[in-house]
Backbone:
């Protein structure tokens, strides 16, 4: 094992994992480091992966797409194993973890949990194998933290549904084969599995991003998109559907953010040991050691929190407010770790030769997507006080 990896895990966190868990973690780490890490800085600089569909297929072959779901070709692994996979993927890049999270924990989970059996059979095996890509359409140009006000509409027309509207900031949107779209209906908010080849469904890839540049982000445009009734989720109504999916995806963020933190911490430690100023490595100066020690403390605490929540999820007792605790704490602390690492690297910290500025930029998006700091703060506050401060 790399001595830097050992130094970053002073708490011997691996002692808390089973052999099956470390085997999955090591397999994902090996793939991420060999097949993604050498290229991801270039993808970030150019604003797109070389071959996103090919990358999805490789991730499907590895078994990480919908890996925590059962049946339909999914691996049926534990929440802890899924979390460890997210950590290793985001240690390479948040955009890659986002691709996997949207595929498995938003699009696939929504279909697995809510869709008709025919839709499940049509899409889930192909999505697990990486032969089909999904996206999740909830956020709109004017409706982010308050999705209840969404403007996208679906109306019945005979035995079909007709959808009109726009969705914004959709990961995988322009490469997706199926979109989970949430829309207002006369019966309240409902979900739909919309094949992207349906007439009237178009996408526009979003450019000029300074964050998550190694993943595809799109706007979805629905203009009289007609789908059969079997594409509508039959039972779920209201915000319970999309919020359940978001809770599932936020769990992966709790783990993934610690991957970005670990990458920056390891980079800062390696750099500090090799960079000499005033005749000795900067790692030998007290202020640098204080930064490294503080970064280590927050990383260890973040992984311990993620692992605790994963054990609760595997036991079936994880509550949404606990996911908010993990998402708020771990992303916020991961961003602080990345910023501290940037100061240790000095001017080199802004170069894509190192992963630090890339992780910093990515985490600025992770901090606010799938629930902003403010929203998770108020979720926690409501749970503590019993008082709703959202309005």
Residues:
């Amino acid at each position: 094992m790399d001595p830097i990896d050992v130094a970053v895990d002073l708490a011997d966190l691996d002692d808390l994992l089973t052999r099956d868990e470390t085997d999955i973690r090591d397999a994902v780490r090996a793939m991420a480091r060999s097949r993604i890490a050498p290229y991801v800085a270039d993808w970030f600089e150019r604003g797109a992966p070389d071959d996103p569909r090919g990358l999805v297929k490789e991730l499907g072959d590895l078994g990480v797409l919908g890996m925590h779901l059962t049946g339909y070709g999914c691996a049926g692994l534990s929440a802890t194993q899924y979390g460890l996979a997210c950590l290793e993927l985001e240690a390479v890049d948040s955009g890659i973890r986002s691709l996997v999270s949207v595929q498995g924990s938003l699009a696939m989970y929504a279909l697995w949990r809510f869709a008709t059996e025919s839709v499940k059979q049509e899409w889930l095996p192909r999505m697990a194998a990486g032969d089909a890509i999904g996206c999740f359409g909830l956020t709109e140009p004017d409706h982010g933290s308050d999705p209840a006000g969404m403007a996208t509409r679906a109306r019945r027309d005979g035995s079909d549904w007709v959808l009109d509207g726009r969705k914004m900031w959709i990961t995988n949107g322009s490469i997706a084969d199926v979109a989970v779209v949430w829309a207002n209906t006369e019966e309240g908010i409902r979900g739909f599995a919309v094949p992207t080849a349906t007439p009237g469904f178009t996408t526009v890839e979003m450019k000029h991003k300074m964050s998550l540049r190694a993943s595809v982000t799109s706007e979805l445009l629905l203009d009289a998109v007609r789908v059969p009734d079997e594409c509508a989720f039959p039972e779920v109504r209201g915000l319970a559907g999309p919020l359940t999916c978001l809770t599932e995806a936020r769990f992966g963020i709790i783990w993934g953010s610690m991957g970005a933190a670990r990458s920056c911490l390891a980079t800062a430690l390696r750099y500090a040991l090799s960079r000499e100023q005033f005749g000795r490595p900067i790692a030998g100066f007290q202020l640098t050691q204080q930064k490294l020690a503080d970064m280590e403390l927050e990383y260890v605490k973040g992984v311990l929190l993620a692992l605790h929540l994963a054990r609760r999820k595997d036991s079936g007792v994880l509550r949404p407010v606990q996911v908010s605790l993990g998402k708020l704490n771990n992303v916020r602390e991961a961003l602080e770790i990345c910023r501290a690492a940037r100061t240790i690297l000095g001017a080199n910290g802004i170069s894509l030769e190192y992963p630090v500025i890339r992780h910093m930029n990515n985490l600025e998006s992770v901090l606010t997507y799938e629930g902003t700091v403010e929203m998770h703060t108020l979720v926690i506050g409501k749970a503590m006080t019993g008082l709703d401060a959202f309005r």
Notes: The CA atoms of residues 166 and 221 lie 5 Å apart. The mean pLDDT is 95.
